[in-house]
Input
Amino acid sequence: MLGVPRVHHRATDSTNERAKELALAGAPHGTLVTADEQSAGRGRQGRAWTAPPGSALLMSLVLRELDPLLPLAAAVAVCEALPEDAHARIKWPNDVWLERRKLAGILVEGRVQEGWAVLGIGLNVSTDAFPDELAEIATSLRLSGFDLEREPLLAELLLTLERRLAAPEDELLAAWAERDALRGERVRWDGGQGRAAGIDRGGSLIVETEEGRTTPAAGEVHLLR
Ligand code: BTN
Output
């Protein structure tokens, strides 16, 4: 069962860091760390993740049943935990978007060879405003017109995660494809540009370029708006 045991911090540096410590100390599959506030929240590609105190769902799960498609499954589960009329979509590999703005990010860390991973999720719930540099690219549920509380949302998310992690790979890939925000869009990455054409069975992005189909080695691509 995901979410048991649970440790909640009013403030910590990073829930992923706390969950890693617990994993190394032998915490069971499903152990959950949450926080109201992080002083050193980590994002993908070495970036920071920040959110005003109490405004975001900040959570990390210790997982001991590993799957290479975990980051994709987590993104689908986040979308499925939201109201259907939010029409949440996924920007490869696992940013959750509402109206082409980032609502939630996912960071998977861990040691596959030791049989554990930490799944970290940050989801903007009640943020009213973002700093200038994020104003055009980020959103929260509240800013998008959805007034939800963090705890009921967390409970729903644990359920959708449980379902997604147990579902067959084909179903996951189909659910991911239905929410693919990049399909048909022009994208660029460090090393090229082209038109996004879905993902392969390993979860790599497929891009059609003038030279043919490719799967960019870069961990992320940028939408050419
Ligand atoms: C990203 O989109 O760059 C990933 C952001 C992941 C942020 C979450 S917040 C909870 C957990 N703790 C962290 O330090 N990071 C993740």
About this structure: The helical segments are 15-24, 70-81, 132-135, 150-166, 169-178.
